[in-house]
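Appendix B. Raw example, untouched.
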Amino acid sequence: MDIILFIPGFIILLKSADWLVDGAGNIARHRGISELVVGLTIVAFGTSLPELVVNLVSVSTGNTQIAIGNIFGSNVANVLLILGVAALFAPLKVASSTIKSEIPFSILAALLVGFLANAHLFQESSGLLLSRIDGAILLFFFTLFLLYVIQMSKDQNDSPGTINTEESLNLRKQYLLVGIGIVGLFLGGKFTVDGAVAIADWIGLSKSFVGLTVIAVGTSLPELIRPSSD
């Protein structure tokens, strides 16, 4: 049954993230938040919700190998697969701020994870791991990134986004989309993780391999699709 629910779970997971981002984005625009801020926060973080939900479910059920595989596999898919496919359709302009700030910050994030994991080699530990303290350190640097995004949005002179009359009248629908998206994310995440574990056991593959490949590529699909619709 878990194997049967894997593909429907994936579809629910991705579609729920899409609904949540659409609803939250429309609500934000209705409140007068600029398009830049919506893109840098709601859309950017919303497309990462599948990875977050899958990892939370994986960790809560003790399948940490899927969580780790999903994170690193998704990063590779985002940089190589998503950018590669997008560049095939049209040249991608890279802003100077991206070269000076975002790319170095991304490299720093990857190096930081590697350092924190390997730091336990010099301690009395049964193996490599990321502790709660390591998690707090990662969240601290993520907070710094958020502060950078906020400052960058203040430096831009974008006018607040607009929402058309139909969307304004259907504001309740946007809240409903957000609610359905949140519920669907957790249901889809559970079905996806349970199915991945069942598939790994059935085929005889490691959970890390499933996380690095099928789940990583699948949860990266919103990044491939979203730029064309926002």
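End of appendix B.
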